[in-house]
Automatic annotation (TrEMBL):
Species per Swiss-Prot/TrEMBL record: Panthera pardus
Record's compositionally biased regions (Basic residues): 224-234
Cellular location(s): Chromosome, Telomere; Nucleus
Phorbol-ester/DAG-type domain residues: 144-196
Catalytic activity: S-ubiquitinyl-[E2 ubiquitin-conjugating enzyme]-L-cysteine + [acceptor protein]-L-lysine = [E2 ubiquitin-conjugating enzyme]-L-cysteine + N(6)-ubiquitinyl-[acceptor protein]-L-lysine
Protein name: Non-structural maintenance of chromosomes element 1 homolog
Reported function: RING-type zinc finger-containing E3 ubiquitin ligase that assembles with melanoma antigen protein (MAGE) to catalyze the direct transfer of ubiquitin from E2 ubiquitin-conjugating enzyme to a specific substrate. Involved in maintenance of genome integrity, DNA damage response and DNA repair.
Taxon lineage: Eukaryota, Metazoa, Chordata, Craniata, Vertebrata
Matches recorded under SUPFAM superfamilies: Cysteine-rich domain (SSF57889)
EC annotation from Swiss-Prot or TrEMBL: 2.3.2.27
Length: 234
């Protein structure tokens, strides 16, 4: 009984803290407006963890990276970005990216160097690497959403639920609409049977496990809960 009450109190405090944080950010943003910068809230595309980024609204993001990267490095990023945006999955293989090094603007770059530059993009949170494939980091999505929408208007994909920019997610095999993994998880949470929100056909993908702040707090007290639960499959 005691335990349950403490848990409930912790959860209420958690929600209040989030609301306070959001009020606080709104206040800051009303001041930042005149400087063309803003704190944007987003979420990671794979498990929906909250992410905040200070976003410059005045300059194009790739040119803003110019202070940290050389011309040929920036062009490598643009090429990778293009492959990611054009791909069906939201991932570009390192092989496909490295095959474009001969076309880069600026100083000539070897494939070995290009591999290191890609790692630099990963360290700086512009890209994420998973099993030799690259996708955009949520930091990059937050900072570059506007730029990506304007630069690749025909290739960009959006989420049917939150209407935000979508790089990786699930799609309906019948009508083709797409959803972020965290949006899929939220949308189907209480549905008895997952059906496409657009065409109502059966949703054939696995419903992903996503970030849950309450679960995370519990896991903090007992590490045993950290095991991924895949039992749903059997
Ligand atoms: Zn979404
Ligand atoms: Zn559909």
């Amino acid at each position: 009984m005691e335990e349950g009450r403490a848990e409930r109190r912790r959860r209420t405090e958690g929600t209040a803290a989030v609301e306070e944080l959001e009020d606080f950010i709104n206040n800051i943003n009303s001041v930042l407006e005149s400087l063309y910068i803003e704190i944007k809230k987003g979420a990671t595309e794979d498990d929906g963890r909250p992410v905040y980024a200070l976003v410059n609204l005045a300059t194009t993001p790739v040119s803003k990276m110019a202070s940290d990267f050389a011309e040929n490095e920036l062009d490598l990023f643009r090429k990778a970005l293009e492959l990611i945006i054009d791909s069906e999955t939201g991932f570009a293989s390192s092989t496909n990216i490295l095959n474009l090094v001969d076309q880069l603007k600026g100083k000539k770059m070897r494939k070995k160097e290009a591999e290191q530059v890609l790692q630099k993009f990963v360290q700086n949170k512009w890209l994420i690497e998973k099993e030799g494939e690259f996708t955009l980091h949520s930091r990059a999505i937050l900072e570059m959403e506007q730029y990506i929408r304007e630069t690749y208007p025909d290739a960009v994909k959006t989420c049917n639920i939150c209407h935000g920019l979508l790089i990786q997610g699930q799609s309906c095999e019948t009508c083709g609409i797409r959803m972020h993994l965290p949006c899929v998880a939220k949308y189907f949470r209480s549905a008895p049977e997952p059906r496409c929100p657009h065409c109502n056909d059966y949703w054939p993908h696995e419903i992903p496990e996503v970030f849950n702040p309450d679960k995370e707090r519990e896991a903090g007290t007992s590490k045993a809960n950290k095991k991924p639960s895949r039992s749903r499959q059997h």
